[in-house]
Amino acid sequence: MDDIVKQALAKWPNVPSCTGWLMLDRRGNWRMRDEAAQASGSPGMPIRHEALLGFINRNYECDERGQWFFQNGPQRVYVELGYTPWVVRLLVEADGTLALKDHAGNDFEPAAVFADDEGGILFADTAAPPRVAVLHDHDLELFADHAALADDAMNGEFRWKDGVTLPLQPVRRADIASRFGFVQSPSANA
């Protein structure tokens, strides 16, 4: 968390939280959701300002109930999740090895890989507790190039790097939030 945010929290500790105004979509884009977007169920307008994106990413955390939020100075802004709290991109490094980067640009070291019943690929990392991230849909072909999939496309294995192979585990999309302990649509008062 940024020092300026910590200072604001100390100066104004009782600023009410808000919900519904910020979304992390299925592709890792931060989106502002005004009242009209919230009322219509629209994902809202993508945020493109690089400094603001960096500020959001540095101050993105989870509360004790599994609700993700952006600490905007003294105000906690709870985040609507398009799927998981993290979105990763799969890429090939200059040396030919694979890498995963989360939507904030940080390395993501997978410990497990899952295929959901809607065709999504998810990774759980080595953190404790593990973070779960959905793979950006633009990277599904690259994933398939490094996977051996069964006919059901929910089983098989993923050839990671340094000779590490991760078994592909089937999972229902509806079970992901409870399995990994996060809330997709948070409530500041829950």
Automatic annotation (TrEMBL):
Organism of origin: Paraburkholderia kirstenboschensis
Superkingdom of the organism of origin: Bacteria
Protein name: DUF2946 family protein
InterPro entries listed in its UniProt record: DUF2944 (IPR021332)
Pfam families: DUF2944 (PF11161)
Organism lineage: Bacteria, Pseudomonadati, Pseudomonadota, Betaproteobacteria, Burkholderiales
